[in-house]
Every structure is written in C-alpha cells, then in structure tokens.
Amino acid sequence: MKKLKLFLSLSPEMKWLFFEVYVYLAYARILKSRSFSKVSSSLGEEMKETTKDITFTNKRKLAQVSQVIGIVSHYTFWKSDCFVKAVAAMRILKKQNIESTLYFGIAKDETGQLMAHAWLRSGPFIVTGYEGKDQFTIVNTFAKTI
After folding, report:
1. How many domains does the chain contain in total?
2. pTM higher than 0.85, yes or no?
3. For residue 6, is it within any domain?
C-alpha cells in the first residue's frame, strides 16, 4: 500500500517513465530470446563508442532512467538481467535523443566458468550494469547515435 501511495504521488512524467520502462524491459526480453545475429543490427554501430563528454542537460534524465530501470526490473514477471536492462535503457534514451554505448564483457568466475555482462554508458555516466563491470573484459560495443 505504501508503494502504491508513493507511485500515485509521482508527477505524470515520472508515472509515464515507469510505464515506458516496463514496456521496454518486455521488448528487450523478447529481443533476448531471438538469435543475437538478428538482434545486433538494431543495437547500433558495432565496435563504435559514443562520446564520453558530459552533457549536463541529460544528467537528470540519465539518473531518472537508471533509477527507474533498477526499480521496475524487480517487478517484472520475467528475468530482467543486465542485457535486458541495458537494451531497454538504450531504447528509452534513443527516444529522448540521447546517445549511448552498449558494452558486452566477459570474465571467468572462481571455478573457471565464463560469465558475461552488459552495461550501458551515456556520456561519462553508467546508466545500467555498473555493478561488477570492472571485472569484465570488453569484447564488443554498440554505439547508438542520434
């Protein structure tokens, strides 16, 4: 009940962002179920990166998207892993005319098993997937430019 009251107290813009994030998380989950070769062309320019320059006008929006993706991903009926969160955030930022770069990294765990991770950067800010990204070696990037 407390969470519902909090949600109802949000501005219409923030309520819309919650809805939009939920829809894009579902879309990204569907993309994840398809073969990567079919999906990769929609992710942007492969092996490219967008600028790391700071844009203060986007800072607030990036923080909002990052925060809402983190919240909503806990309430989806499907697993919203790092790839799903990063692709959803990329799509939302593209709609807002904000550039971003999707990173894919790999690492080995303690048992020698290969692990993968995806994260999204816009300007100097990591929008999704910040946790643990430094232990992964970048193997591919996709730049979504305006």
Report:
1. 1
2. yes
3. no
